[in-house]
């Protein structure tokens, strides 16, 4: 079984409420941008929307996050958030990301997230089921 580690991209724009007192995007918003991109890409690219997980009582939570900030995004900037799935384990996955300024093409932030699949009722890790594996592997 080969993992689908294609890179997918989502375009987002900096909103006024993303700006901090230094007049650039607050560091916490970069996490939101990656989460928004994954939400979009799970549905659009993997055909595996979050709504299916919720219906089955499952969800993904972040257990590790590494972010390297390189350049600031500012009000009105458009960005391209690219992600790719790099590893699948028993109950979690690793997703690498890069956030680029659309105008300059330069990376503003990159890194990776580890997401753990949990049972929403028990709040405990859940072994990744076959239907998820099917969505995340190449056929």
Structure in words:
With 139 residues, the protein is α+β, with helices and mostly antiparallel strands. The protein has one domain (2-129): Hotdog Thioesterase (Thiol Ester Dehydrase, Chain A, Roll). Helices cover 22% and strands 42% of the residues. The strands form two sheets. Strands 2, 3, 4, 5, 6 and 7 form a six-stranded antiparallel β-sheet that branches. Strands 1-8 form a two-stranded antiparallel sheet. A hairpin with a 4-residue loop joins strand 6 (107-119) and strand 7 (124-125). The longest helix has 18 residues, at 27-44. The chain is globular, with a radius of gyration of 16 Å. The termini are close together.
CATH architectural type: Roll
CATH topology: Thiol Ester Dehydrase, Chain A
Radius of gyration: 16 Å
What series of H and E elements makes up the topology? EEHHEEEEEHE
The assigned structural class equals alpha+beta
Report mean pLDDT, rounded to a whole number: 95
Indicate the overall shape.
globular
Any low-confidence stretches, pLDDT <50, length ≥5? none
Distance between the termini: 8 Å
CATH structural class: Alpha Beta
Strand content: 35-45%
Please tally the β strands and state the result: 8
CATH superfamily: Hotdog Thioesterase
Number of domains: 1
């Amino acid at each position: 079984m080969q993992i689908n580690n294609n890179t997918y991209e989502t375009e987002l724009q900096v909103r006024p409420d993303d700006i901090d007192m230094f007049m650039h995007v607050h560091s916490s918003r970069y996490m939101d941008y990656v989460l928004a991109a994954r939400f979009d890409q799970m549905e659009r690219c993997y055909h595996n929307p979050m709504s299916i997980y919720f219906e089955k009582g499952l969800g993904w939570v972040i257990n590790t996050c590494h972010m390297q900030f390189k350049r600031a995004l500012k009000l009105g900037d458009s960005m391209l958030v690219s992600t790719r799935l790099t590893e699948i384990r028993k109950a979690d996955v690793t997703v690498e990301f890069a956030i680029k300024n659309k105008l300059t093409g330069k990376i503003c932030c990159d890194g990776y997230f580890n997401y753990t699949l949990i049972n929403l009722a028990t709040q405990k890790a859940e072994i990744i089921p076959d239907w998820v594996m099917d969505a995340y592997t190449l056929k």
